[in-house]
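Data availability excerpt. The first of two example chains:
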Amino acid sequence: MSTEAVDAVVIGAGHNGLVAANLLADAGWSVLVLEATDHPGGAVRTAEVTEPGFRNDLFSAFYPMSAVSPAIRGLRLEEYGLRWRHAPEVLAHVLPDDRCVVLSRDLDRTAASVEAFGDGDGDAWRRLFEQWRHIREPLMEALFTSFPPIRPGLKLLRRTGTAEALRLARMLTLPVRRFGDELFTGEGAKLLLAGNSAHSDLSVDNAGSAVFGWLMAMIGQDEGFPVPAGGAGELTAALVRRLEARGGRVHCGRPVREVLVAGGRALGVRDAGGDPVRARKAVLADVPAPTLYGELLAPEWLPRRLAEDLARFQWDSATVKVDWALSGPIPWTAEAARGAGTIHLGTDLDGLSAFGGELARGRTPRRPFLLLGQMTTTDPDRSPPGTESAWAYTHVPRGTTENRAALDRRVKRIEETVEANAPGFTALIKARYAQGPAELAEHNPGLVGGAVNGGTSAIHQQLFFRPVPGTGRPDTPVDRLYLAGASAHPGGAVHGGPGSNAARAALARAGALGAGYAAVIRAANRAVYG
């Protein structure tokens, strides 16, 4: 029997793998995507897991980073059936005492909301947003480019000037709590920044957390937190339709057992059934770095220093998530929260600090910080008229083992937290679907131990430290093998950056100057790994 052969094999049909496959197919390559589970999409999936007619996003749900990502925008997925929808308001942070600050795409509304917490904060928010608008284009280009982003970096420097660039660099290193204190007097604006930083695994007191809070808040102000009409899975479906229109193929339920290497070069893969697939030009792995290097690649191809660095690889916190089918909208006492797609709930600024500190010490936080999604409020297609499809998640320490009783206790605590600011909420629950760290990893092997970010977002594992100290590029020590998942720069969230970077690296290696490209990468690897 002849060996199956294509130009490129992509391991994993998560959104990064599908972005990479599309870009390679655009270049005329034959592409085969092999997915271990029975469904494409990775953490971008929708299913009716609570009640018939209720469409629940099993993992990710809101996509602000997709809205600004050059990789996603450049694919023009709207031509393949994708439609975006928005809630009336982007986000609300509800404090335990029922005060509420709102982030809206209407700048005047956001400014008024933060002004109610501190005199002058409305104007300060406008100035912060104006700074964002001034640097958005070159900053996004730099963020999503393989490291070092020389051309977009120079473009950003020309846009800002040296003095402003230095102040921007300082801001990007700050803890978000300090950043908020420097700009605002009241708690409202500070909470919008701090709560958004908590979408990562960073504490509000961690160096580097300011950039996450600022970036998410500014994107929310500018673009909102959009969702695909009909469910997160519609984003995946559009990626698959686009790929198939260009001749690419996705095989689900076909795990990869190993990457085949000879002479230091990736030649293809072998699936779990033992069948080889030859890759004439490249193998791209949309899997966590420890999975690629620790399971799919033979140890002989791993430099000693890389293996040592991988032993220090840090995952992000684990997650507990519950989806609900509700008989009606959540009855928030704070009326401003009723129209928000995303809700931050359970703590004030000091509570966020305590929450992060307890996680850092390996303790389950006494007062959970919740991220909650009101999906029917955002997209009426998610459940029958008059009802609500909703979810909430919180972080728990890495290594947490949840039996069913422990998971049920955590879900009860989550529901009690919502009930405290929305009396009558629990009476609306028709059905629930809970996932702890074990369930998340079982349903999506890429979410190792319930980690949703492909590794910590802390500054020591970003840029050229991601996934380990190195080049910050998708290239690996094996020629024509590329890391295309969230463990690679620029990291987690649904923006397609790692997949796009991996595809562009593969195209560069296969191009007319490919031999020179390979020589540069070999030299860089020797300098880093010996």
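And the second chain:
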Amino acid sequence: MALEIRYGRDGKPIEVWYGRMKIDGKMEVKALKTPFDGIPYIKPNGRVSLREKGDTKFEVSKNLAEKELGDMLRDSRIKGRAEHLTERLIEAKTGKTVEYTRLEDLAARWRAIPREESQPSENYLKWCDSVFRRFSESAKCEFLYQVDEEQAAGFINSLKGSRTKKTLKDIKSLLRSAFNALLPVGSKNPFGAAIKGKRKRGQVAPEEGGTIGRRPLTPEELDKLLETAKRMDHTLYGLACCAALTSLRIGDVCNLKWKSVDTKNGWVRVTTRKTGEPVEIPIFDDRLKGVFESALAEKKDRSEFVFPAAEQMYEDNPTGITYRGKKLFAAAFAETEEKPIDVDKNGNVKGGKADLADILPRVLASVSLAGFAPGKRDRIMDTLNRYANGETLRQIADGQRDVGLRHGNGRVSDDMKEAEDISGYSFFKEGSGKATIRDHIKKMRKRRGAGMNSASLLGWHNLRGTFVTIALSSGVPFEDVAACTGHTFAKTMRDHYYKPTREHTKKAMLRVKDAFSIAPKQIPAKEVALLPDAKTTRFEMVANAVGGLSEEEKQQIAKMLSANKSNSKALPTKRKKG
């Protein structure tokens, strides 16, 4: 394979490059589409040299021509495969040329796929880009059709232990969809032939990558949360009240428009941003009604949003809204700070903080065995060594920045606390020793396996689960709850939102306790008249019973009595002894 410059009769180079390559054992020269440009290097003997550098335009033109020639050579090799006969048949039937997508182009092609319904968010597409980039780096091939099941399984297995079960499922689903959309017709999808094992009963343990459900609040806890929000911020109270009493996600609450709120008839009608499902929620609580009336009274501009400040913050910085929710839950449910574990250099419990220099080898050993990613492990160990040598947080951050670790004081502090959690030693002397709101937020997270992000236990989404749990525990039918939440399948609601605590279960059972008690049997008035009384003789009882019968029934009873009388005469009389 080589480039050529050809000249016309006027002695000037032809406007395009030429390429020489071997096809089916025969050398051929083909005109390329890349235009010839610039001035090449001229040897002393007057000949043009392509090995030496010409001017800038010439080198740019030459590089483009080399890329085009390389693509032509790869295409010729592809057309030499046995599958090319199938491709020609497909092209003949569909009238479309079979395209081959390179792995390096997977992210760009996925973004360019036309979508009929709502467009994905930029954050989701960035996540897709990272998955495609990681996969293309791990796969030892160039085109999508060259990826086999072994490579696909190897990539997924390489992520196990550092990703949750749900994240692995999402990654496999993304790659399966991308391959289905971009593979040539007739090609086998390596992510579409997975054999599922026997389904495990119960939830997967958090340390094994299982999902950790959000705990719903009890009515008493919800009241406490709303009272805390009212003291902190008027807007925060409105968001919390609306999220708890409508089951809307916080994004839908922040983007709630006045045209969706019918205060006169008491309804909220919204098309959810995540699923596009329309939902209708009644305004059944006076607190929610008061929030809408207050927001309407304070409306000064022509904003179409119920909470304009929250809508602006959510669009500019969704993480800010999330953090405000965490601060609210931390302020409402901050637990009493526990006394830290303090040890001396021999590992014995003592008062105050331990000196890291005395226990550094033990802490480093714990971090090295924790299963962190190499980059994070090295950063934490570097932080510990610097702190043990007497450097401050600022000095540690500056020193790490000089060696390419771009983390500030906050990251250094997080690394120190994570080292404390892993080792079980308490040595980080931060500030005055008083718990900050950030410390309380950290307590609202649950650690999972090494390499996995800790799971958030309390936040805005707990209010959605609170709505579902309280409604279902109160006896509201699933269909009515689903009309408010937008769920289609009961399994989704049961697995992810209906998480009753002991208090929810206890209150629900108190409402049905009467069904388990033995109530006195209600006897009709007609039967009450037939019940024996202390002063009623047997003859009177029979007379009362006969009084309620028809003439035909009376005649039947008379025949029975006469028959019994005749039978009694035929029977021998039993004699008394003595």
